[in-house]
Amino acid sequence: MLAEFVVLCLWFGSCAVTEAEDASMTRALKLMSETPLIDGHNDLPWQLRGQFNNQIKELDLHTLSTTHTNIRKIKQGRLGAQFWSAYVPCQTQYKDAVRQTLEQIDVIHRMCEKYTETFMFATSSQDILDAFRLNKTASLIGVEGGHSIDSSLGVLRTMYQLGVRYLTLTHSCNTPWADNWLVDTGSEPSRHNGLSSFGKQLIGEMNRLGVMIDLAHAPLSVMNQVLDWSKAPVIFSHSSAYSVCPHRRNVPDEVLVRVNQTGGIVMVNFYNDYVTCSKTAKLSDVADHFDHIKKVGGAGVIGFGGDYDGVSRLPEGLEDVSKVPSLVAELLRRGWTDEEVKAALGQNLLRVMKEVERVRDSLNSSMPDDVPIPYKEVENPCRTSFGYQNAGNEFSLSRAALLLILILQAGVTFNT
Ligand SMILES: *[C@@H]1O[C@H](CO)[C@@H](O)[C@H](O)[C@H]1NC(C)=O
Ligand SMILES: *[C@@H]1O[C@H](CO)[C@@H](O)[C@H](O)[C@H]1NC(C)=O
Ligand SMILES: [Zn+2]
């Protein structure tokens, strides 16, 4: 009976299941033609370094086959906007993190310039809409990991000038001003109980500049402090739901509720290990995260943050960036309305970014924060202390010695 049914389906080329699949895929593609799919995190730039040392002149990004992302797949996947990750590993902290990050920003700029028919470099919510109208993929930059700014608000501001529009506060290491998510696993000790007072300054400066605060990779303490202190909504550029898979990179329900209250967004990560807490996963497991976040935080807080080219294992059915429409179709099959799907595709991120821009504009009369981090909080052999008075370096030691000599001489003078 079953066999006959299958044969019949094959014979007519359709049956109830495939018909429903086709219908929801058609609907998914229609919605994706009306609202840009905006993805929060893609590590293609890191692959460009790892595989080509950022030499992109000779390679053809249309057909590149050693990555989850190429132009052909981007078109199939209807990728409307991408936050490309300017990521460098924690091993660069206190060494060449800033240089390496600038090189990642540079390779994103060069990629956009080489493929102008596909990418449009973008720095605002309006740019995303403009690119979508031009049938191009809006290309934005997010810096992943606070170690990339080397504890300097000046570096943050300069990166803003280069187009950076979000900063993930930490990657997988503490910075001199923020704890990272590993603190919550117990594998790393807390240094700050969340953010230090410089970390709090940084939140204010990000609000003032209009750099979105990304809490992916943050521990619970930092999530809550930022939600308390930030004047603008936050993003989780690539994190899933803790209740569905209790991994510390995921977002617990109590935080989902606060993200709803503050108008932020959680962009779901597809990495198997965060989706099922195991090495294997299916597309429907990712949809479970979407369903859960919708249930707890509402359809207004969800987005896509695939983490393509940043992870080694992806769910069956979501193997590369071309597959995302299948996930959209699955949400429709699960009863998501057109409005809910459009919210998740891009409307939510656009709302957050507009609000971040509005807060920036409301603060445009305040001056940049020019108070540097205290030297003792960043002292290390690769950092000089120019500009800091009495920082305890050779320079001020010699000044102290000079002062002592002068005092002694004065004493001698008085005694005669
Ligand atoms: C947009 O791009 C798609 C895919 O490359 C193409 O099929 C379509 O014709 C383009 N539409 C416009 C308006 O350029
Ligand atoms: C938060 O939840 C409330 C109640 O469920 C809903 O009305 C509101 O639109 C949600 N906010 C966002 C940003 O999703
Ligand atoms: Zn990450």
Automatic annotation (TrEMBL):
Cross-referenced PROSITE patterns, in alphabetical order?
RENAL_DIPEPTIDASE_1 (PS00869), RENAL_DIPEPTIDASE_2 (PS51365)
Q: How does it sit in the membrane?
A: Lipid-anchor; GPI-anchor
Give the record's GO CC terms.
apical plasma membrane; side of membrane
One example of a Gene Ontology biological process annotation: proteolysis
Per its UniProt record, the required cofactor names are: Zn(2+)
The reactions it catalyses are: glycyldehydrophenylalanine + H2O = 2,3-didehydrophenylalanine + glycine; L-cystine-bis-glycine + 2 H2O = L-cystine + 2 glycine; an L-aminoacyl-L-amino acid + H2O = 2 an L-alpha-amino acid; leukotriene D4 + H2O = leukotriene E4 + glycine
Signal peptide boundaries: 1-20
- EC number(s)? 3.4.13.19
Keywords carried by this UniProt record:
Cell membrane, Dipeptidase, Disulfide bond, Glycoprotein, GPI-anchor, Hydrolase, Lipid metabolism, Lipoprotein, Membrane, Metal-binding, Metalloprotease, Protease, Signal, Zinc
Show the Gene3D superfamilies listed in the entry. Metal-dependent hydrolases
- Name where it mostly resides: membrane
CDD domains linked: rDP_like
| InterPro entries per record | Dipep_AS, Metal_Hydrolase, Pept_M19
| Domain of life assignment | Eukaryota
Q: Which Pfam families match?
A: Peptidase_M19 (PF01244)
EC top class named in words: hydrolase
State the Gene Ontology terms under molecular function.
Answer: beta-lactamase activity; metal ion binding; metallodipeptidase activity
Cellular compartments annotated = Apical cell membrane; Membrane
Q: Does the keyword RNA-binding apply?
A: no
Q: How does it assemble?
A: Homodimer; disulfide-linked.
Q: Which family does it belong to?
A: Belongs to the metallo-dependent hydrolases superfamily. Peptidase M19 family.
Q: What does this protein do?
A: Independently of its dipeptidase activity, acts as an adhesion receptor for neutrophil recruitment from bloodstream into inflamed lungs and liver.
Record-given protein name = Dipeptidase
- Identify the species of origin: Nothobranchius furzeri
